[in-house]
Fold:
Amino acid sequence: MDLSTELRKRGGIARVRTLIAAGVSAHALRRAKESGQIRTIRKGWVAGADADKRLLGAIRRGVVLSCLTVAERQGLWVPQRGLIHVAARPNAARITVPKGVVVHWSTPIVPRDPDAGEDCLANALALVAQCQPVETALVIWESALNKGLTDRALLSGLDLPPAARAVLDQATPFSDSGLETIFVTRLRWLNVRMIPQAWVLGHRVDLLIGDRLIIQIDGATHTGAQRTIDIEHDAQLALRGYHVLRFSYEQIMERWPEVQAVIMNAIACELHLA
Structure:
């Protein structure tokens, strides 16, 4: 069995016993070390020159990437990026990590594969719920549900900690972006019906409040031909008695009180009613 192929399957890092079980000979491993093709990074572990650097750092220290870091690597909508999050066993020996790394000492909900340097999504989501503010956790959970990377039925069957169970109780798979989740979460106190990704006049809208108030969130794609389509749809909505409010990423994330005031005034004027 080809050593390079087996290493590539595992992100460039693997346990020696796993490689041998896959058919790589001890002779091939020895030759690869002598030639510099692979190097020992920890007792029983080897890595190639193109190994994933974050996985490499985690495995060297006997931890796994988890929490926000796994969410980022899975392509989920993470409001703020920066620190690297890893998970370690509760009974693990003292672990030294560089500045900028957060260690979660936790028992995994789903058993961790001994060959993995990265937590499964369920374990990562559980840590997100315990590590992050509820709004941030909800954004990430709904992003995972929306992308189909997990589902409520699977998560409901797990022995989730209270914080994760609370997030699951609120999460839905309908928000197409984290901004939509933020909108619904921050306005839930209004006790008005809100439908993310509602289908109105042949197009999806980001959020329908009540019967007639439509919220559209303008991101980087709302330019050129897309912008023309949006304007045409807005006109058709207006002709049929809908009220469209558009907000940018910057308004929602940096100037939320202004956005909320506009929504509150619109509802006070009953623009959300048929």
About this structure: The mean pLDDT is 91. The beta strands are 13-15, 38-42, 45-48, 64-65, 84-88, 101-105, 194-200, 203-209, 213-218, 243-248. The first helix runs from residue 3 to 9.
